Amino acid sequence: MKIVKTAVYCATLSVALFTGCKEKTAPSAFIDLSAIDTSVKPGDNFFLYANGNWVKKTTIPASEVGAGSFLDLYNRTKNNIHTILSEAEKNPGKPGSIQQKVGDFFASGMDSAKIDQLGYTPIQSLLSTINNIKTAENIIQYAAQGHTRGSNMLFDFGVNPDDKNSMVTIAVFGQGGLGLPDRDYYFKTDAATQAVVTAYKNYLQKLLILTGTDSLTAAKEVEQVYALEKQMAESHKTNVALRDPQSNYHKMAVSQLAKTMPHVQWPLVLKTLNIQADSVNLQQPEFYAKLNQLIVTQPIATWQSYLRLHTINSAARILSAPFVQASFDFYGKALNGQTQMKPRWENIYRTIDVQIGEALGQLYVEKYFTKEAKQRIDELVQNLQTAFAQRIGRLDWMSDSTKQKAKEKLQAFIKKIGYPDKWRDYSKVNIDRNHYFDNVMAAEANNYQYMINKLGKPVDRTEWEMTPPTINAYYNPLYNEIVFPAGILQFPFFDPQADDAINYGGIGMVIGHEMTHGFDDQGAQYDKEGNLKNWWSTGDYDLFKKKSQQVIQLYNGFTVLDTVHVNGALTTGENMADIGGIAIAYDAFKMTKEGQDTTQKIDGFTPDQRFFLSLAQIWRSKEKDAYTMRLLNTDPHSPAMYRVNGPLMNFTPFYKAFNVVPGEKMYLPENERIKIW
Known about the structure:
Layout: E1 7-9, H1 46-57, E2 66-68, H2 69-90, H3 98-110, H4 112-118, H5 124-131, H6 136-148, E3 156-162, E4 165-174, H7 191-210, H8 215-234, E5 251-253, H9 254-260, H10 266-272, E6 279-282, H11 285-297, H12 300-315, H13 321-336, H14 344-368, H15 371-394, H16 400-411, E7 414-418, H17 436-452, E8 473-476, E9 481-485, H18 500-505, H19 507-517, H20 538-556, E10 559-560, E11 564-565, H21 572-589, H22 593-596, H23 607-618, E12 621-623, H24 625-634, H25 640-649, H26 652-657
Parallel strand pairs: 4-6, 7-9
Antiparallel strand pairs: 1-8, 2-12, 3-4, 5-6, 8-9, 10-11
Helix pairs in contact: 2-3, 2-14, 3-14, 3-17, 5-12, 6-10, 6-12, 7-8, 7-13, 8-11, 8-12, 14-17, 15-16, 15-19, 15-21, 19-21, 21-25
């Protein structure tokens, strides 16, 4: 679990190839008719009915982990970004301007000859510091210092609103220290997991060899570090356990921590992190209890190897070509199934987006996002908010008192569309077009200081967790906000020229999804102010938990890759948001003139049918098996097919639109269809 508690949808899915449709103006351009597989009954598998021919003919690019609508939209957006970066590189403008910072950052990253010439010299001083470590205090201090330069080693740390007092910030510490994506990789014995573990060890050995360690010594050190990480992993909560916000909140006095976990050196940790605090939120105390033990029971030499490897790994993608290749061989090939590295400019773009993203975002929205689009989305959001309130009012399982509080929370949503009203200030970040590594470090230091400066100050609810070009959206329970960056406000999710069925089935579903996150199994535990506080009557919340369990059981029954099942407990919140999002979007669609006309057809499809086809085609995707397996282990979203079929199985208007009847595979008797919101 990341420290930033945002429930985001489709953060990692790469999906579709809707190329060329956006430029057309005829309504029929907005449904890809060639993708539809009429050999599949809509009531048997609507995902394959809407996308089956596309799935059959689509080949996943060698440089990608999948293909689909998200990838297509990302490719169009990244090409626009490439134009911005190239223009800024050629014409950086005045010193200190965002144009200069973006352009020179890009130029420095593209100077691969100089970066390759430097090899690993940018981190030599850090490696020398590790060689001189002699005590447990030195270990803790070095790891804490790593956080100030963007290296999230040994433990997880951030500054966030206090879950139980969301108007103030608090230092938050979470479990960390692992090199593999999830604790379960250290304990599973199946062939696929073991292949990843072997690749991970080979990667670590390569990093040591590239920095001057002989192969035999490197192999020995890697085994020691892996054994250390495995001991840390034993104390880690599972991804499912991390979904319970109550059990992951432990506000504790620093003085008490210093007594109960003395070897973690809490006063030294806070001093090194530049924090002055009497208390912190220790999300997973079990991990820190284990760390308190390991710091003094493991040899200093093993800890040196651990810090050395995590330091090199953290920097590998911004060092010379051999390090970049080694990183790709593990993270790209072994973990995700990619066979070809992305072009260098794209990786540099992603680094810039992470480091000075709102500077790049300003240039993006000036060139590619219109006020008209923002206004249209504002209207859609308002319509869905109205539809959701009406649905709450009609619920037959919730008391009037809880309904009133639910509506109050809904109306209190902070709505952020397109881009921030207030941009980040990067004036203190010095960017030099001749020093890529130094630019990254300067940006990391600025980002860390920006975060630390929040402590002791009122929470700024105007800030964003995503940059404007991001093709994603999120709900943040601590702010009680829904956020839709400019990147996702494009076709196939939204187009000003599209009919209402397309936009409500696309971005409408996305909006409804994020709204529902405020009332999913996690979001429902936060009140309208963003506090982890019960606002339900006891009987209502018991009924809600029973409905949540129905969702878990339904999705547990879905299989992927022949025999592997969806983890219903891990994906509960996203599944609930999908189920609710479709229902809310459909009700809002029915408020429009087109939604009320059930007879007029386009390309042979009624408005309702186009609504559901739009919904199915925004989620279409095809992925590498290795990537799918990683997502099943770690991602709170269900695979794309079940993001379509799962909610529709439970939505009666879909049955009517496509005449789904008993005997078809998606059919559920009406009394078995899950209806929460």
